[in-house]
Design a protein that fits this description.
With 133 residues, the chain is mainly alpha-helical. Helices cover 65% and strands 0% of the residues. It is globular and about 55 Å long.
Length: 133
């Protein structure tokens, strides 16, 4: 989900209809870096020597990986209820609800990036803005 949808939309917002004008090369690079951070977070992978310029983000990944994995556990856990007692819910509303919750969680992560990593402040704000549009 992160690789095909969320990170792809961050790295190429115009391809998903989030932005009309093309990104500058600096903007594109910033968006790609933010998507790399989120992808590594979702995969539970830290940055290594291959991408030494990203090592500073490992502390961010260490803090938020358990929280994201706990979220994954909650949203993927089977529900033990009597189906007859549930109100009728369309699959679309379930998808919309899950999307809203995931978007809110990603917004929280981006807010934390703003506080913890000052050198990416402008890039995170741009990413947050297009996610909220």
């Amino acid at each position: 989900m992160f690789l095909r949808f969320i990170c792809a939309a961050i790295a190429a917002p115009e391809a998903f209809g989030f932005q009309k004008e093309p990104l500058t090369s600096d903007e594109r690079r910033s968006y790609v870096l933010v998507s790399k951070i989120l992808q590594n977070l979702a995969n539970g992978v830290k940055f290594g020597h291959k991408e030494s310029y990203m090592l500073a983000f490992n502390s961010f990944l260490e803090v938020y990986e358990p929280k994201l994995f706990a979220y994954f556990d909650v949203v993927s856990a089977p529900v033990q209820v009597n189906p007859a007692s549930l109100p009728m819910v369309t699959p679309r509303s379930m998808v919309e609800e899950a999307t809203m919750r995931l978007g809110a969680y990603i917004e929280t992560i981006l807010d934390k990036l703003l506080v913890e990593v000052p050198n990416v402040t402008a890039q995170v704000w741009r990413t947050k803005r297009f996610l909220m549009e």
